[in-house]
Every structure is written in structure tokens, then in C-alpha cells.
């Protein structure tokens, strides 16, 4: 019996000691912390092996590194190591990288889907949008479409910015929107014109949040009904 116990103990001692899950995670976290503070310009195999693992830390480090590559305009490396992310900033960098690597038409076509939103996009999209505005793929109707989307989101700052992006900036329309923002009842002074239906409904929606009773009165007005029919919109 004693001999058997000695043999079993010897077998146990000869087995490799494996790290616990907690120890493994700690090692990975320490590696992440080091690389996060020392993002490489030229990645070594160890770094690439780390970001290729399918873990939250690896994906977080890859995103951070890609942002650095984008800021440094290292487009060849960016394209090589980019993976599809929901991150809009990284998507904009990816299309900018494709543009600078000769895929101009494809990049500009794809950029339109990121452009057409009523939300303000991150600063990483600025260069891409400048390229889009200057490209042959761009039609000023895309500005108009985005202004409509911005007003639907009540994103006044974006709408005002976009009005200045036309070849002939629409400064008068910027002033009209400013006036409506300060005093929504000024929508009754609007004449017919491109985007004026959208200005009217923007003002009516703003009025709802300020004076519901007055907004209901305007909603029942014939002019308001005409606007709502044309735009298929309801501010309530």
C-alpha cells in the first residue's frame, strides 16, 4: 500500500502545473496594460498574436491600435490589420485608407452610407467627408437629404453646418433656422422653398416641447396640415 502511494505521489509531482483561469487572465491583463501604454509602430509577432485572440481585451487593444494607425495615416498597416467593427470612427478610417490606396470610387460609394445620417459623426470621419464633398461621386442633393435627417433628429447644429456646405452657402437659411429655434411661432412666416416644409415641421416639433397647447392649435391650422401631408410626418 505504501509503495502504491509513493508511486501515485511521484506521478502527481511529475505532472505540469497549469495556471488557474484567474492567473491566466491576470497575465493577459498585464500584457494588455503594457501594450496599451506602448502601442507599436511596427508590431512584433507577440503583439499580433495577442490581438488575434478572440477576447474582449484583444479586441479593445486592436481598436486602440487602429485608432493610432489612423491618426498617423499609416493606411497600408491600417488596411492590413483592420477588422469589421461597429465603431463608426474606425469605419471612416477604413474607407479613408481604401481611398488613399487607390480604391477611390469604391470608398466614396461606401462613404455615402456613413454620410446619410441625422447624427453628428465622430472627428475621424472629417477627412473622409471632405474627400466625398470634393469627389465626382458627390451630388449636393446628398447635403439636402442629410439636412432633412438632421432636422428629424432635432440636430440643429448639424443642419446649420450642412447649410454652409453647399457650393453657394445658404446663410439665409441658417438665420431662418436660428429664428425658428428661438421663436417656433415664426414658422407661420415661412414662404415656399426647398427645405421650408422641413423647417416648418422642425419648428412645430420644438413648439411641442415648449407650449403643447399652442402646438396643437398650429397643428389644426390648414397650413400645418398641408405641410404634414407633404412630409408624411406627425410631430406628436
Q: How would you portray this structure in words?
A:
It is a single chain. The chain has 236 residues and is mainly alpha-helical. It is built from 14 helices and no strands. Helix 2 packs parallel to helix 4. The protein is elongated, with a radius of gyration of 28 Å.
Number of DSSP helical runs: 14
Broad shape: elongated
Residue fraction in strands: under 5%
Please, what is the oligomeric state? single chain
User: Helix proportion of residues, in percent?
Assistant: 55-70%
Calculate Rg over CA atoms.
28 Å
Terminal CA distance: 86 Å
- Order of helical and strand elements: HHHHHHHHHHHHHH
Largest sheet: none
Which ranges are low-confidence, i.e. pLDDT below 50, for 5 or more consecutive residues?
Answer: 1-19
Count of extended strands: 0
Overall pLDDT: 86
Class computed from helices, strands and strand pairing: mainly alpha
Summarize the structure.
InterPro entries: Lytic_TGlycosylase_superhlx_U. The protein has 236 residues and is mainly α. The protein is built from 14 helices and no strands.
Amino acid at each position: 500500500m505504501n509503495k502504491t502511494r509513493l508511486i501515485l505521489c511521484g506521478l502527481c509531482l511529475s505532472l505540469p502545473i497549469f495556471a488557474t483561469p484567474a492567473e491566466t487572465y491576470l497575465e493577459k491583463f498585464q500584457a494588455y496594460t503594457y501594450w496599451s501604454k506602448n502601442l507599436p509602430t511596427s508590431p512584433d509577432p507577440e503583439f499580433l498574436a495577442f490581438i488575434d485572440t478572440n477576447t474582449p481585451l484583444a479586441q479593445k487593444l486592436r481598436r486602440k491600435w487602429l485608432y493610432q494607425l489612423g491618426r498617423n495615416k499609416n493606411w497600408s498597416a491600417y488596411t492590413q490589420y483592420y477588422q469589421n467593427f461597429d465603431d463608426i470612427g474606425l469605419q471612416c478610417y477604413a474607407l479613408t485608407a481604401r481611398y488613399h490606396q487607390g480604391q477611390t470610387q469604391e470608398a466614396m460609394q461606401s462613404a455615402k452610407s456613413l454620410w446619410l445620417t441625422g447624427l453628428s459623426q465622430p472627428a475621424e470621419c472629417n477627412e473622409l467627408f471632405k474627400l466625398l464633398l470634393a469627389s465626382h461621386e458627390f451630388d449636393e442633393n446628398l447635403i439636402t437629404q442629410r439636412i432633412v435627417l438632421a432636422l428629424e433628429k432635432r440636430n440643429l447644429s448639424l443642419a446649420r453646418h450642412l447649410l454652409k456646405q453647399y457650393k453657394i452657402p445658404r446663410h439665409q437659411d441658417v438665420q431662418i433656422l436660428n429664428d425658428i429655434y428661438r421663436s417656433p411661432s415664426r414658422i407661420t412666416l415661412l414662404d415656399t422653398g426647398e427645405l421650408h416644409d422641413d423647417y416648418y415641421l422642425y419648428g412645430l416639433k420644438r413648439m411641442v416641447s415648449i407650449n403643447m397647447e399652442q402646438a396643437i392649435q398650429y397643428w389644426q391650422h390648414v397650413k400645418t396640415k398641408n405641410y404634414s401631408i407633404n412630409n408624411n410626418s406627425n410631430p406628436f
